[in-house]
Amino acid sequence: MAEHPLDLSSRFIDSGVADGPHNRISEELSELGDDLALVESFSHVLLVRTDEGLVAFDSSGRRSGRDVVAAIRGWSDEPIHTLVYTHGHLDHVGGSSAFAADADDRGRPRPRVLGHENVNLRLDRYDLTDGYNRVINLRQFGGAPMVGGEGMGGGRSFVPDGTLRTDTEYRDRLTETIGGVELRLHHAMGETDDHTWTWLPDHSLISAGDQFIWNFPNCGNPQKVQRYPVEWAQSLRAMVATGAELFVPAHGLPIVGTERIRQCLETVASTLEKLVDDVLAAMNTGARLDAIVHEVGVDPAVLELPYLRPLYDEPEFVVRNLWRLYGGWYDGTPSRLKPASDASLGLEIASLAGGALRLADRAQALAGEGDLRLACHLADYAAEAEPESKAVHTTRAEIYQQRRSAERSLMAKGIFDSARAESEFVVTGENQSRSVKPSMGE
Questions:
Q1: Which terminus of the chain, N or C, has less C-beta within 10 A?
Q2: Which structural domain, as residue segments, surrounds residue 148?
């Protein structure tokens, strides 16, 4: 039998070493206390038993919703009274159709769906950018490369059919009592603008959603909309102030014990705050984005903590997100205000180098020396100069495979693997994508 999630998290935190997975996608249910249970899935579902039925926090995603409901039904046959969305990312709301189907099959009312007022606006935006979101999620998590219109997800829409929208909304705070259990909902900015964390004083419990993910905070995702590190840190400190004894995130392991909770949340908050301070200090001296990206970072020792490893997002991406938040899109380098096209730049650099093949050869040599950042630039320029050259793309694919292998964060691995697949498509004419086995959501 798998180690209980509370025992596993306590061991990871107390020892400072994570010698196993922190986000187990088992679809198994564990009781966390009287009338409390957790289904560990791609995105977890927290359950609270009340006198009026179950309250579920999130529904997991499109592929896991049915398995989550099956796990719930192995624990309780009670109606699911309320579904609370911690936020509108699809790995949290995309399984809601399975909850609706369960109610329909049993002749019961569908769950009431409660969430922040921005959740439905997020789903509206997803509908407006349906194709774009399918493209970037394939690139981030693995899938057919986007070549010639390929890989659009088999025609399925980005938002799963039947996804339930919120029918009860709030703006800043909301307190409700359901079946004798009090829920205090708090709006938080952080990974999203529609986030809810909930304090349940009757259980001394916090449902945290993605405000804590057992990884470096997902606050810099290079392909997604603005994130909010200052407000994220503030929300963590507000959670600490409750004195909660049980803390349940939607990814990763639940944490038991007021001191453990305080230690973890305050460490993440202070790490975010220092990164913000360092970026702003550099911006206020007039530094350009390029300099800040290469000079500002996080203490490597901090990044080895079991709950702050940069295995999904990473500090370098957060630095760029902070620049976007405080400084806009212009990075301070004049030539990039109205730049030449990538194709014309690639042609010119290849001409200076003596041809695209010589440029690709130089890229390969740099990769062999370990300078993968510069090697990728030159490989891209070579491909721009001769986009149909199989020799150039063979080299480019090799370099991006090496780059992918050298990275820690899933986001970097996904993007670099997509570049490899693009070049291999030119060489072979076949899509050769690889899943990066995501452990997070958006």
A1: N
A2: 5-269
Assigned domain for 425 exists: no
Q: Where are the alpha helices (DSSP H) in 309-389?
A: 315-327, 342-353, 356-368, 372-385
Same-domain check for residues 102 and 240:
yes
pLDDT of amino acid 332 = 97
CATH code for the domain in which residue 63 is found = 3.60.15.30
CB 87 within 8 A of CB 196: yes
Please give the Cα distance from 264 to 253 (Å, whole number). Answer: 12
Task: Looking at the structure, tell me whether residues 22 and 132 fall in a common domain.
Answer: yes
79-127 pLDDT, tens per residue? Answer: 999 999 999 999 999 999 999 999 999 999 999 999 999 999 999 999 9
Count of domains forming the chain: 2
3-state secondary structure of 307: coil
Residues of the chain with pLDDT under 70: 1, 142-155, 432-441
- Provide the pLDDT for residue 204: 98
pLDDT at 140: 81
pLDDT at 442: 72
Final residue of a domain: which of 235, 269, 303? 269
